Amino acid sequence: RPGVAPARSGLARAAAPGRRGDVLGDLPDRCGAITIGGDVQKDRIELRAWGWGEGLESWLVGSWTIERFDRRLEAGATVKTRRAPEAVAAEILNATSAGWRRKDGAVLHHGAGAIDVNYDSDFAWRLIIALGARWHAIRGEARGRPGRLHWRSKVDRVGVGTELVLHHVHSPAAISEFYRQLAQERPTGPDASWAGYVHLPIGLPDSELEEMTAEREVFDPRRRKRVWVRAAANHAGDCRKYARAMVEALGLDLWTADHWAVRAAALAEDAAARRSGGQAAAAPPTSFLPRFSS
Known about the structure:
alpha/beta, two-stranded antiparallel sheet
């Protein structure tokens, strides 16, 4: 049934052959925005970039693993040194700052990135502050607000000296939506709608698909209700949830066909300027409807 991942990621495996149509990072002209999700682990940070089009059509366009330790050999042994958040932030910015070129030549930069603060929160908050304005703290929540996939709150962090924003994503809602989208058949015909369709790149390993669909909905007899549980490592799935939450933080989920048409026209102008060798057009707005309110 919708929202429940079959065992061994059968849904994702069955859908993958028809979805793997581009190399990682290639963007069709329908892609108009990019968001990034990051999952903090003990020794690394996993990052995934997702491109978005009208109706929540999406593309996996970037994947990075950023190490939290420097390693060197001393007397034949490997010595690990913990990296400062500022050094990790510099590597993340270097990896993500170039942007993504669409097939028409327009260049997209990510509109917002979200890094989870569930694990090693002190490091995560310092990292987010070092990353700058387009990066945000986020936390997955088992309980949500009626009809809301994303919301935000304000928190005080000792030593920061200012009130900070914490974004929240309702994990069950985000997971269920993603599984329903993975179950969609590939559209056919020139006038077919691509709304909600998930595009995966050529060569994507099965391990990545496993991580995307590692959570299962099972019945909890003690609480007498269905709950989501993690069956395996789910870093890629978490990154998808956080990137999806940023879609709502930017207001992209509220865009109408007219908004997307304006966005497409601005990106077409940028592409034309780049093809002619002239000065690229000013970066078109990522969001017409910013929604950084609760």
